[in-house]
Amino acid sequence: AEVNLGNVRRNLHTLRRAADGSAIFGVLKADAYGHGAPAIGRTLERAGVDGFAVALLEEAIELRDAGIQKPILVMGGYYGQAWGEVLAARLLPVVYDAGQIEGLARAIRFADRDPVKVHLKLDTGMARLGVRPGELAHILDVFRRFPEVELDGLMTHLACADADDPSATRAQLELFDRMCADVRAAGFHPTVRHAANSAALLSHACSLEIVRPGVALFGVP
After folding, report:
1. Which residues partner with 150 through β-bridges?
2. CA-to-CA distance for 196 and 218, rounded, in angstroms?
3. N or C terminus of the chain with fewer C-beta within 10 Å?
4. b/e code 24-63 from CB counts within 10 Å (16+ = b)
5. Grouped pLDDT means (10 residues each) for the chain, 221 residues
6. Coil, strand or helix: which one is 161?
């Protein structure tokens, strides 16, 4: 396969217009969908992307080793207790259970580091990973117990944003809004929210402060 990096840059600029001011975190999971994550990442960084999102810690480390400096969001939530690597690579972890928060807090204490920002994944219907509405109060209590871990972002994953019927996506976004309001009512002040994948961004289903296009970077509508 031949990857045209000029086309990748143009796709980013097209998505920038669709994002209407939202920060763009390009999703480069699975080796940038088979296109070669290091080369794609360097191209997008030079073209002005705001950050990156990957599924696995190993994918994030590969980008850092390739010289990528922009923020890298690790969405999969599995770190294998390798919190030292997360800290050393200056990654932005996504968390969704108490063990992750506690493990990261202990690593921060051991390294004598300043608090580390994380994003909390909320399960609004994908039913894969994330905090469900009935679990939210408990997880917020855990954040209170470990101030080393700063709740700075809220995210969810839309299950079927590319479906012809938008009702399921609307329901997820409405639940996401309610859960975000509950977080703020509990005294937390996350600065960013994000939910939109490529399909949601291009259909203008939502934008929020960050959008996460993946396949659209490679010309898939």
Report:
1. 117
2. 17
3. N
4. bbbbbbeebbebbbbebbbbbbebebbbbbbbbbebbbbb
5. 91 96 97 96 98 97 98 92 96 97 97 97 91 98 98 95 91 97 98 96 88 94 71
6. coil
